[in-house]
Amino acid sequence: MIGAGVVGLACARALAMSGRDVVILERALDIGTETSARNSEVIHAGIYYAPGSNKAQLCRAGKEMLYDYCATRGVSHERSGKLIVATADQQLGDLAAIAQTASKAGVADLQTLSSTKAIALEPSVACVGALLSPSTGLIDSHGLMLSYLGEAEAAGAMLALGSPVLGGHIDGNAIVLDVGGDTPMTLRTTTVINAAGLWAQDLSRRIAGVPEATIPECHYARGVYFTLPGKQPFSRPVYPVPEPGGLGCHYTLDLGGQGKFGPDVEWIEEIDYTVNPDRSERFYDAIRRYWPGLPTGVLQPGYAGVRPKLHGPGGPATDFVIQGPEAHGVAGLVNLYGIESPGLTSSLAIAQTVDRMISNAHMNVKRSRA
Questions:
Q1: Could you tell me if 234 and 274 lie in one domain?
Q2: Cα–Cα distance, 306 to 268 (Å, whole number)
Q3: Alpha-carbon distance 218 to 203, whole Å?
Q4: Residues whose CB is less than 8 angstroms from the CB of residue 123 and which lie 6 or more positions away in sequence, other chains included
Q5: What average pLDDT does range 191-195 have in this prediction?
Q6: Quick check: 292 pLDDT over 80?
Q7: Cβ contact 138:80 at 8 Å
Q8: Bridge partners (DSSP) listed for residue 112
């Protein structure tokens, strides 16, 4: 297993609990320090994704699995619900389209609200109409990752931090990995899960024998968050109608009640988590469309995250890619590309898919040898 973000840890847990020997290789010195630590900590309902897509199916299934997991393992979470708001009459058609897409994707609990009903729920909001998503929630993402890791280790998995994969090659039915760090080593294995997130494509290119044509491009979209100190305007997440590349400058809050706005969308060439305080000027304009009462000068720089996009600026939205041997021809290798939002929500469902893919591949190998 390469990558100890939320999806990598979920996969490691699933594989270890299925009886496999698992080593988790992580280049950083702690788990979940990149994309998994730099999101909005929202449990998504699966509203926006194309019906039949991996994102739609895995988000919807993963959401239910995640709520059950958190309840039975004591991971902090809240089924908060959220509002998606139209701030102009011309956006009401967008709300209707969102509701229709969600329904086709199997999300059956969305409620259409008049402005009066939306304002009754959130008196500070300004809108001409809204959708209420009762199954959207909030989660302690670090607590979730610690729980995944704990169960993986209890099932025999081993975590190797500070262990970057420098390269590798295919040797018959085995994959050989060259691992760096303070104690460099070479690992020979029959199964590799590439859950390296922002570096998944780069990692694949460093394993000799993985066809270049099967590796999609990766584009980086940085999103920054600004925090709001003091009394909070809303009791649940509030989202505007989505914008190209993201879900708009939305409001959410953590389980401790700290509110934040973001992320925005900025296409960048290199991974960079810098938060430019001057970007807050764009935030004020966007936020005041649905919260006119936002005082000037109160937003504080928070943090930034980078999304591993499979499309560039202006390109059509792309799906999660869970790529097995049938796509690239390398036995035992599963590549996870473009795992951005709703990756956290989908993590258990992605892990289940990967586990089944590996099990089926091994069964096919056994049959071919019989």
A1: yes
A2: 9
A3: 12
A4: none
A5: 98
A6: yes
A7: yes
A8: 131
Determine the pLDDT at residue 51: 96
Strand partners of residue 261: 226, 251
Its pTM stands at: 0.95
Residue 101 near residue 53 (C-beta atoms within 8 A) = no
167 and 272 within one domain: no
Helix H segments across the chain? 6-17, 54-73, 92-104, 115-121, 141-154, 200-205, 280-287, 325-328, 343-369
Q: Are strands 185-189 and 207-208 parallel, antiparallel or unpaired?
A: unpaired
Instruction: Give me the pLDDT at residue 366, please.
Output: 44
Which of 24, 32, 87, 93 minimizes the C-alpha distance to 291? 87
Question: What letter represents residue 298's amino acid?
Answer: V
The tens digit of pLDDT for each residue in 62-91 reads: 999 999 999 999 999 999 999 999 999 999
Phi and psi, residue 308, nearest 5° = -85, 90
120 and 160 share a domain?
A: no
State the Cα–Cα distance between residues 127 and 285, nearest whole angstrom: 15
Q: Give yes or no: residues 233 and 211 share one domain.
A: no
- pLDDT above 50 for 181: yes
Among residues 215, 241, 200, 245, the alpha carbon closest in space to that of 336 is found at 200
Contact predicate 25/2, CB 8 Å: yes
Whether residue 69 is contained in a domain is answered as: no
CATH number of the domain within which 333 lies: 3.50.50.60
Look at residues 276, 309, 342 and tell me which one is the last residue of a structural domain.
Answer: 309
Same domain, 259 and 358: no
Overall domain count for the chain? 2
The boundaries of the domain holding residue 276 are 82-134+219-309
74 part of a folded domain: no
